[in-house]
């Protein structure tokens, strides 16, 4: 518990090809890699107790947080912790100002951290504070005194973190107080001037907002209340001027109840994700989505707010009672914690896709902590950092680091129209399967999705294409065929976090077309060009479902990168010319930065460009290596560049390239008659 209490339909033809399995290595098994957890710090009474808030990353690479209890006076602390686990207490509450901070910190534009305390301050109803580094704490605002009915206009007992607004102010909530004593939404300036924006009435608008706000792309703010007169909490929208609308009321049944943790905005449009601590199919809480989208009512489609329950916790290995919100991972998935359940009933860390597929990543044992009540934060190295509110070496909670499992890699080979797909783990045996040959068909490209499925693109010279979806066990699950389209050739495919497949076609006269495919259902298409002297060669997706297209100059040593958003708008960058170099492959980092592989047509050297939105780029150069050529690029789970080289003797080498340019390599082959044609991130 907290401190307190338009579709263009194509003919759908299943490409019914029988797959024969052939083991190319000693064993078909794939090693299972799991995330590893390290306890960075176990709290003692002197440095804090029972952290219920999560961490915030500082610009210095360290993390910052609060505890509601412990410290020099027993009323909580502000602390800094390094990624290696060195903890420093910056402030112990109790000597002055507020006490018992339940909420996490937020970084201000001035480099200071801002936060709230539930109690204390001049009137003992909570306070807003600012702390700069290891300097002294400044109380910016003390919530006003209350009468016997706990009524005041500005609120009391804030339990939530502040949200920096686009106007330079902070926005927040109080659990109680306000005109009707059921909590408030407020705005406060960095200097401490507070304006109440809304007082909850306890009716249909809800009561007792326990968590903070999220910013919408429309300039409004979104939040939740923990209860309401006719249900089990609400989702609301509030304008910067204080006009509040209730968007959804939870029933406490299958849709969940008592929303927990702040909402988090999804990619594209007005879409938010959150958790409830109760309700759902088993009464153990849910993960939900609420989005503003077209909804069919009768025979009419209208735009409205639609709540979707993505997942119901069972209370078993998957966890129970999530108390913290979700975090958007760099891989396009969401990450969170449950305060109970799991293998040891002490809580879990989980991953969930935007579509609702949940994976339990870790179950706490007690010695490493228990009852995490806050979400996690992801660092640039891909690791997640968080807190548990109890247990650990001193039974006062912990700070932990969860390092991601090293993912596997998919590799696609072609032998005269026969395909071989490999799943290569970091350690252990390679799993493989072969398909075909199928007369007239050739495998040409490979991709994967965020849940670990692989996708193979097959083409014919006559203008047909087929997309195969395969599970991580290399079993064919879905296939769909397109064409004939005379004069057109399918060249590349990519899969977005939403699971939709995108196929790039190039046609006569330097024309390109991109198909957006829901496998087994519908397809829409977008066409571009003609652009004289240019050919679209490859596409990639980022974590926001934006498309990136690589165009190569046919006679010049130039490359053009297009970024096409989900709404269809596009921006472009041109790189080059670089005499003697040719762009050959494209991958996109989760943050949206394209990486291009260039090949020197004379020497066989490779250059990997990481391109910033400004058009500036960083370059890593490799080779030349006699007899070898760079052919493809992918991004591994740790966002390192994964560069594929092939040799004239049917060998393959993979370079795992870090941010500094250093790399490790692994080799395969030679395999007579087989050619490696693609790589993609594995499960």
Write a concise synopsis of the structure shown.
By secondary structure, the chain is mostly beta strands. The strands form 15 sheets. It has a 4-stranded antiparallel beta sheet with strand order 1-32-31-30, with no helix packed on it. A 4-stranded antiparallel beta sheet has the order 2-3-4-5, with no helix packed on it. The relative contact order is 0.09.
What does this 3D model show about the protein?
- This protein has 683 residues and is mostly beta strands.
- It has a domain at 413-681: YVTN repeat-like/Quinoprotein amine dehydrogenase (Methylamine Dehydrogenase, Chain H, 7 Propeller).
- The chain has no helices and 56 strands.
- The strands form 15 sheets. Strands 1-32-31-30 form a four-stranded antiparallel sheet, with no helix packed on it. It has a four-stranded antiparallel sheet with strand order 2-3-4-5, with no helix packed on it.
- The radius of gyration is 27 Å and the shape is globular.
- The two termini are 34 Å apart.
- Residues 4-32 have low confidence and may be disordered.
């Amino acid at each position: 518990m907290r401190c307190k209490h338009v579709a263009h339909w194509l003919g759908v033809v299943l490409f019914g090809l029988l797959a024969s399995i052939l083991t190319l290595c000693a064993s078909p098994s794939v090693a299972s890699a799991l995330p590893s957890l390290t306890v960075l710090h176990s709290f003692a009474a002197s440095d804090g107790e029972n952290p219920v808030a999560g961490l915030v990353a500082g610009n210095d690479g360290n993390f910052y947080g609060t505890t509601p209890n412990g410290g020099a006076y027993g009323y909580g602390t502000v602390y800094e912790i390094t990624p290696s686990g060195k903890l420093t207490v910056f402030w112990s509450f109790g000597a002055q100002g507020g006490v018992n901070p339940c909420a996490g910190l937020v970084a201000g534009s001035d480099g200071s951290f801002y936060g709230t305390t539930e109690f204390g301050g001049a009137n003992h109803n909570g306070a807003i504070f600012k702390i700069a580094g290891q300097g002294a704490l400044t109380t910016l605002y003390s919530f006003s005194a209350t009468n016997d009915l706990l009524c005041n206009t500005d609120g009391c007992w804030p339990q939530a973190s502040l949200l920096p607004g686009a106007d330079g102010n902070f926005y927040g909530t109080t659990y109680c107080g306000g005109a009707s004593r059921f909590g408030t939404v407020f705005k406060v300036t960095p200097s401490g001037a507070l304006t109440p924006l809304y007082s909850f009435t306890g009716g249909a608008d809800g009561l007792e907002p326990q968590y903070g706000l999220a910013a919408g792309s429309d300039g409004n703010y979104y939040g939740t209340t923990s209860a309401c007169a006719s249900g089990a909490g609400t989702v609301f929208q509030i304008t910067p001027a204080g006009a509040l609308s209730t968007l959804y009321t939870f029933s406490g049944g299958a849709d969940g109840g008592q929303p927990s943790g702040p909402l988090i905005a999804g990619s594209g449009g007005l879409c938010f994700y959150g958790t409830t601590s109760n309700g759902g199919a088993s009464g153990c809480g849910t993960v939900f989505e609420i989005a503003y989208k077209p909804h069919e009512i009768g025979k009419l489609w209208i735009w409205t707010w639609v709540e979707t329950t993505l997942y119901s916790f069972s209370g078993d290995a998957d966890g129970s009672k999530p108390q913290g919100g979700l975090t958007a991972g760099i891989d396009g998935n969401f990450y969170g914690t449950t305060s109970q359940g799991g293998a040891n009933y002490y809580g879990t860390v989980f991953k969930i896709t935007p579509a609702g597929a949940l994976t339990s990543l870790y179950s706490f044992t007690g010695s490493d902590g228990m009852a995490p009540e806050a979400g996690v934060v992801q660092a640039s190295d891909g690791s997640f950092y968080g807190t548990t509110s109890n247990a650990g070496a001193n039974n006062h909670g912990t700070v932990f680091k969860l390092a991601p499992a090293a993912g596997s890699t998919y590799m696609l080979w072609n032998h005269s129209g026969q395909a071989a797909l490999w799943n290569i783990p970091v350690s252990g045996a390679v799993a493989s399967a072969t398909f075909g040959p199928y007369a007239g068909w050739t495998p040409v490209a490979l991709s994967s999705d965020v849940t670990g499925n692989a996708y193979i693109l097959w083409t014919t010279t006559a203008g047909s294409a087929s997309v195969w979806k395969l599970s991580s066990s290399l079993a064919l699950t879905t296939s769909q065929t397109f064409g004939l389209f005379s004069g057109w050739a399918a060249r590349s495919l990519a899969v977005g976090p939403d699971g939709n497949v995108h196929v790039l076609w190039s046609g006569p006269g330097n024309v390109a077309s991109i198909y957006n495919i829901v496998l087994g259902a519908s397809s829409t298409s977008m066409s571009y060009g003609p652009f004289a002297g240019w050919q679209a060669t490859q596409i990639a997706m980022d974590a926001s479902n934006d498309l990136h297209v690589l165009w190569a100059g046919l006679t010049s040593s130039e490359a053009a990168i297009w970024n096409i958003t989900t709404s269809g708008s596009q921006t472009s960058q041109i790189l080059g010319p670089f005499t003697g170099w040719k762009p050959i492959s494209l991958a996109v980092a989760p943050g949206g930065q394209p990486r291009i592989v260039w090949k020197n047509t004379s020497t066989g050297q490779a250059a990997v460009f990481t391109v910033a939105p400004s058009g500036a780029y960083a370059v890593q150069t490799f080779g030349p290596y006699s007899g070898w050529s760079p052919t493809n690029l992918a991004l591994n789970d740790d966002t390192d560049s994964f560069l594929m080289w092939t040799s004239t003797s049917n060998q393959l080498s993979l370079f795992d390239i870090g941010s500094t340019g250093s790399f490790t390599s692994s080799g395969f082959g030679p395999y007579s008659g087989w050619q490696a044609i693609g790589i993609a991130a594995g499960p």
